[in-house]
Design a protein that fits this description.
NAD(P)-dependent dehydrogenase (Short-subunit alcohol dehydrogenase family), mainly alpha, about 5% strand, NAD(P)-bd_dom_sf, elongated, about 70 residues
């Protein structure tokens, strides 16, 4: 994400923009010692538009973010 922001800032006058996206969960051996609880869950506040996602506050009215995910 930060690369896309900085690349767009640096090369905007040349007509170059960069985009970033989250391709989804990529399961590797890093997850072998976790329970998987909460993985792949997205709070409703994040499924609007990319602009909304990039400005979404970490604490919402409907729930809160904790070490265990969104509740």
């Amino acid at each position: 994400m930060l690369f896309a922001v900085e690349a767009t800032r640096r090369w905007a006058r040349d007509g170059i923009t960069a985009n970033a996206l989250m391709p989804g969960a990529i399961y590797t051996n890093l997850q072998r010692h976790t329970s998987g609880r909460g993985s792949g869950k997205v709070p409703p506040e994040l499924i609007r538009t990319p602009e909304h996602r990039s400005t979404w506050p970490p604490v919402s009215r409907r729930g809160h973010r904790s070490a265990r995910g969104f509740t």
